Amino acid sequence: MKKKVLPLLLPLLAVSVLAGAQTYPAGLIDKTIAVVGNEMITISQLEQDLQYMRLRGMQSDESMRCEMLEQMLESKLFLMQARVDSLTVNNDMVASNVKARIDDLRMRIGGDEEVEAYFGKPLYKLRQEWTKTLEDMNLTQQMQQNIMKKVPEITPYDVNIFMQETDVNDLPEVPTRYQLSQICIYPDREAAKLAVKERLIALRERIIAGEKFSTLARLYSEDPGSRVKGGELGMAPRDIFWPAFSDAAMSLKPGVISQIVETPDGFHIIEVLEKKGDMFNARHILLKPQYTIEDREKAFKTLDSLKMEIGNKAVTFSLAAQAYSEDPLSRTNGGQMADPETGSSYFEKDRLKPQDYNAIASLKEGEISEPVESLDNEGRNGNTVYKIIRVDKIIPAHVASVENDYSMLVDACKQKKAMAEIEKFLEEKIGSTYVVIDPIFKGCEFRRSGWKEKIGD
User: Fold this and answer.
1) Where on the phi/psi map is residue 41: left (φ > 0), alpha (ψ -120 to 50), or beta?
2) I need a labelling partner for 11 at 20 to 30 A (CA). Which of 56, 238, 289, 367 fits?
């Protein structure tokens, strides 16, 4: 059972890798390590942020304190200006982000008690601190966006100057892009669903008859993450899972085996081990619909025939797609594929499913692939589908040009000007704002030299 991905809660400014190490004097517990105007930064704040980053998998060493401190110093400059400009916190966004952070930590560490032990504070205190942190972050991000909005609309003159001033090696590079059409045929999904349900019913009956749920999960479950643990998922918030799964789990009493539950991952039977508030720990067995060789051969035979008919000009690809394709989205467009996220009819290699790219990688414009087994865009990982793909157009990789990639150059030009506004703001504020940095950080190699002048004696 895969869990839904939670958003990263990081500031807008990227963290740069700095040289030099930073350690604290022995015995030091907590203190103010920097003052920016009327804002303060403490060791405990810095260390808590580092703890969270490490938990998210970020590699760190002693120099990480230096780069994190510089990021916090910059954030304080934006925050001060946000207060001067009377910007207001988006409380709904902050509440959502606090909840996402806590749910993420519960999932990673194992529960409320484990989160409290890891950070050495009760959860209510952590919630208060993170709410304040994320409120400040929200104002900081708004301020950054307001500064970047100062960049006027980009004109063709701006783009030409950008092209002249930018080394050709630094201009945006446009990767190879493909325009594709497809004809899709699905296997007999209803028969496959019925078969998988029958298998789960049989497993459920075996468990009720006395066999161990964990043993059968290790033998049969198709969830690789939990299978090795006997199907156990670990204590986690209900929001992490698909609603149908969490609703079924929360309605069960410990030891009771659920009826079959369908989610975008497949079909499950569930046993709840423990419930705490909106969290639960459960075992499950996941089975996914399986399709037969006969399904594949039948679809491939039809697709081979269609490819031959199109090659003999008995029918166009577009008409064949409208008549035979079972993909409702591309069928109405004569088979033309579109990126489900961007809506664009052009795909970069990384935006194509591996099976689709492998099928067309060696083709030229106008050529049609052999039948291939692939996946659609439904559910989490997609459903099995058989298809042929025509390469309608190939745009080779190239350096962005005004003639072919004007909008990309506009974006690059605007981004460059926006970052210049950010840099200008920071340099001005570092020079004009009262800032004192504790001398224990004198060994840091800050990215902006102005900070060095703010280190106390």
Assistant:
1) beta
2) 238
Q: State yes or no: pLDDT of 244 exceeds 50.
A: yes
**Type of residue at 417:** K
End-to-end CA separation in angstroms for the chain: 56
Has residue 235 got a pLDDT over 90?
no
Q: How many residues does the chain have?
A: 457
Output the pLDDT for position 18.
33
Mean pLDDT of 317-338: 95
State the residue for tokens 């190699």: 445
**CB 11 within 8 Å of CB 71:** yes
With residue 34 as reference, give the H or E element that holds it.
strand 32-36
| Cross-strand pairs, 179 | 346, 393
Amino acid at 172: P
DSSP secondary-structure letter at 248? H
Three-state DSSP at 267 gives strand
Per-residue pLDDT, 404: 86
Residue 323, by phi and psi: left (phi above 0), alpha (psi -120 to 50) or beta?
alpha
How far apart CA 179 and CA 144 sit, in angstroms, is: 37
Check whether 77 has a pLDDT greater than 50: yes
pLDDT band, residue 15 (cuts 50/70/90) = very low
**Residue found by looking up tokens 């468990």 in the block:** 207
227/268 Cα distance (integer angstroms): 13
Nearest to 327 by CA among 266, 391, 380, 377: 377
pLDDT value at residue 61? 64
Residue type, 57: G
Q: How far is CA 1 from the centre of its chain?
A: 18
Instruction: Give percent of the chain above pLDDT 90.
Output: 67
Give the sign of the dihedral formed by CA 75, CA 79, CA 80, CA 84: positive
What is the bridge-based pairing of β-strands 266-276 and 279-287? antiparallel
Q: How far apart are CA 266 and CA 366, in angstroms?
A: 37
Domains and CATH numbers, the chain: 32-153+415-454 (1.10.4030.10), 177-187+291-396 (3.10.50.40), 190-287 (3.10.50.40)
61 is written with which tokens? 């060493």
Distance CA 325, CA 389 (A): 11
3-state helix, strand, coil in the chain (%, to 5): 50, 15, 35
